[in-house]
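User: I'm preparing a small set of examples for a lab meeting where we compare how different chains pack in three dimensions. I only have the primary sequence for this one, and I'd like the structure in token form so I can line it up with the others. Please keep the answer compact; I'll paste it straight into my notes.
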Amino acid sequence: MKSLILVVLLLTAASVNAQSHLVTDRVVEDPEVVDTEYPPAMMSLRLDSEGNRLNGLIYLADGPGPHPVVLLLHGFPGNEKNLDLAQAMRRSGVNVVFFHYRGSWGSGGTFGFANAIDDVANVLATVRDTTWAREHRSDPNNVGIVGHSFGSFLGAKTVEGDNSVACLAYLDGWDVGANAISMRDDEELYSNVLERWQEGQFGEGGPLQGDAMSALAEIVGEAESYSFDHLAPSIAQIPLLIISATRAQGRYHDSRVMALQNAGAEHLTEILLDDDHSFSTHRIELAQLLVDWMSNSCWN
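Assistant: Understood. Below is the structure token output for the 300-residue chain.
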């Protein structure tokens, strides 16, 4: 059965590439001609979330637009920022907004899981503002989300609260709730994670500003509502790309696909790559898969 699924995926990918080769070419080729009045550009953004400054960027696509917009959400803490994917999506004609959540990488405020969920919702509201969209050549009615690891969880929580999101790419997503349930039931595991967070992500000079114990207590308290099984019925209702890595979240791939299918997913593309959590040996293929899927599945 596994081999049959793999063959189907390979044939599907070949079909998609054949139908949208011009889009795929933009992943690895610079444009020969650009709009001199509205060229591609990158601009810093100062976004607001509950009175806190979020540091961000927008990658503006070539031409006057309006272009579809993608929120590119990084992980916990976000060492892999996937900005190569931002460049590839921009070359395909999509504007990409990347930002750091409260209390991460220099953004104002305190990092927390609920805070990060609210941050994404607030940025989504910003890019849907008609004035902001006009100023940034963007289409406020075509906004998708690409999340990696923790960013996938945030994307799923955002869709749970707003099913008008155009599409969601769930890249080796972290099941925060399932991990929290495991820690709640295993005191040694809880202590080990707390120590690692205190010394690492929340340590002196680290990327996150906040309290590790409070953050850990937060996810344990919200374990069920933060789980993939809880979120599956919401994200199953929109176009969804789920790509997992065999040496990370790939061991949960089949169960997640089954949960989505049981929830009635009709526009699901699922792929398993033999790689690590950052897709270190598949960056070009990852970009091609993402851009091709987005061009065929996301935009009105």
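A couple of notes for your slides: The radius of gyration is 19 Å. Confidence is low (pLDDT under 50) at residues 1-22.

User: Perfect, thanks.
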